[in-house]
């Protein structure tokens, strides 16, 4: 009896694996979509425990948080691959629901290690199914409130992953993470130079005021405070270790303070998984570029003066503010806003980002909700034009030959990237991507 | 003029800062100097405000905000002196006599004769209502996201009659208007999407005229059109 059930199970798993591969190939051949999620959904339909069984024997790092999941996972993919000296690492890219993870696993071949970004709402489930060795928890901030749980409840849920994963690489600067980390056996705390704090001013434990200073924070009402930090990175990329010793410097191709933090998180997690010191990976980090058009530079060859274009993706106020800090002087700014299901239907969040710092700059608002964005910018004191069609907006911005900077939220960003060919867009930086299928 | 944005550390979940920003912008458009002053919850609510704006929050911060506002006590004086208060979502509930947070009944400030009970379903999505007080506009629109059912005491005037969406979750209405207090479940933010509401607030502050811009009118029209009106 027992033997035949095991056989039946393994046949079912193999069937799921084969079905997923066939579907993935069919999708690639037909040219529809990227084949990222559908094969995984098929695998899960044939064998609901597909992830659990297929993850057997694979050393996995799980990456979660509101912002930076995709880029951190791309960093990890490269670091783990470089340490392996081979191609036996598997990762997903942007598709961070169970179907996306299953699809990546179906195409994993004989991979022995993996890194997966996981949507916050699915963290405990996938942490247990993947039996991840290390979890990277980047940050928690407001995002798509109309469809996800409120950020405090969601943080509690994510913390439950500690029942299944023993090692946490966590952001010591985020009270919502620290307060919900109690179930992890080993906690490695890291900090970066980032600054978004609007979602943690009331203590997640007692509701008291949380006092932030330049370097640390503590609750005035209870004992919650910033834990002892093992690794820290500053704005210049300098990293210090557990005793305050200097470990060297991270230099990145992709911009932004928040990416220095993401890079440190990836190094520490890769080091913990491989039993190596994090600084072993710093050199490799400098070779990694943006994923899926994030932080990508283009030339728009079909426009008369062939202007440059840089594309940024950000999904919520913390993400937008991080990128507004990076705008090069003299560039023309295009801001794309959609409110489809994947973006969240409510655009109120744009009023939480500090666009006042752009006042007196000329900005073009675009996307499905261009008018909401344009009015936000008008109130912020910008000179604003409203051009709902995104390609047209980019073309208008680049008409004079000035470099264009585009920043859009999720579906706005990907619909622009998908249509940039019409402007003759050529990448000026090669983008390496983790291959999943 | 000073617009006090009350407790941004606890009540600012849905871009509610926008209401204060739009009000200051509108005042400047009619030639009144205006600034937004943020009033964090660990300090007394400033006494020198001309208008007070409060927004939405999750259960824990909402309960804490109510506690601190009751201890502070100043909003009652603001209401007694007829200075305008705009209270959205969680703040609407806090200004009432009681509400629920984390499943526990809490005391409100008692400035609005309304009570809020937990509802069976979360109300999430676009709302269109017809304003009951004349606003010079046919509709009010906003985005709601709450699970409270707010019952108005007899004789309390709602802000609008709901055409689509949930609003207060009972009686087919949204919000409440009592003296100088205007309360509603509509964020988006409310003052960004509804030029008529801006005019109302401006009038309460003793200024006059319609101050909206072409972009704001376009935004108002857009949201009505999307709602199929
Ligand atoms: Zn506390």
Characterise the protein shown here.
- The complex is a heterodimer of chains A (437) and B (229).
- Chain A is an alpha/beta fold and 437 residues long.
- Chain A has two domains: 229 residues, UDP-N-acetylmuramoyl-L-alanine:D-glutamate ligase (3-Layer(aba) Sandwich), CATH 3.40.1190.10; 132 residues, Protein-Tyrosine Phosphatase, Chain A, CATH 3.90.190.
- In chain A, 34% of the residues lie in helices and 18% in strands.
- In chain A, the strands form three sheets. Chain A has a nine-stranded mixed β-sheet with strand order 2-3-1-4-5-6-9-10-11, with helices on both faces. Chain A has a seven-stranded mixed β-sheet with strand order 16-15-14-17-13-12-18, with helices on both faces.
- In chain A, helix 1 runs antiparallel to helix 2, helix 2 packs across helix 5 and helix 4 packs across helix 9.
- Chain A is globular.
- Chain B is of the alpha/beta class.
- Chain B has one domain: Rossmann fold.
- Chain B has a six-stranded mixed β-sheet with strand order 2-1-3-4-12-11, sandwiched between helices. In chain B, strands 8-7-9-10 form a four-stranded antiparallel β-sheet. In chain B, strands 5-6 form a two-stranded antiparallel sheet.
- The longest helix of chain B is centred in the first third of the chain and has 14 residues.
- Chain B is globular.
- Classes of the chains: A alpha/beta (437), B alpha/beta (229).
- The site of zinc ion (ZN) has 8 residues of chain A, from loops.
